[in-house]
Amino acid sequence: MDGTSSGGRVSRFAREHSLGVAGALSAVALGLVFAVVGGVVPSTVLPRAPSAVLEAIPTANAAVSLAAIVTITLGVRAARARDFETHRRYMATSTGLFAAFLAMYLYRLALLGTTDFGGPAAVERFVYLPVLAVHILLAIVCVPLVVYVLTLATTRPIADLFETAHGRIGRVAAALWLVSFALGVVVYVLLYLVY
């Protein structure tokens, strides 16, 4: 026995293999999303919340998205101001908000399926579906980027992050994440408020 804890070995492994760990975590996360979207997860395995709760999820997710837009923006501003502890807190909060959004979205989707667009066919074809498609694409692309940046951030002290791709990839991830959340709010407005 060398005195190294299993937690220390795991942390060291994640630090030395950040890209692979992030890739594996991203594959698991996206696999779960695609399993729910594809109907592989049967709704019967999930406890069913009251209808009022299920109906409130889209509005709650819009609020979570708006909160995430604020925390991501503040996190980026903190990083630019070189206040990295504040940046770390805001980005951890953003990650928590994203996880909450995803859990609520997937739960409702598994139980109720997708919501049909109720507006005119032209608006659906030329506005709603393109906005939805870009939102979904960016959300999918963001997962491995965000997971990689988080893997780097959680396995190193702040001073060591400057020697990694954290800043470069983080800027791209934050920008795409912001656009994805903003488009998600647009989808909500079109689907639940306008039509």
From TrEMBL:
The chain crosses the membrane at residues 21-40, 60-78, 90-107, 127-151, 172-194. It comes from the Archaea. Pfam families: DUF420. The keyword Membrane applies. Keywords: Membrane, Transmembrane, Transmembrane helix. The keyword Cytoplasm does not apply. This is DUF420 domain-containing protein. It comes from Halobaculum saliterrae.
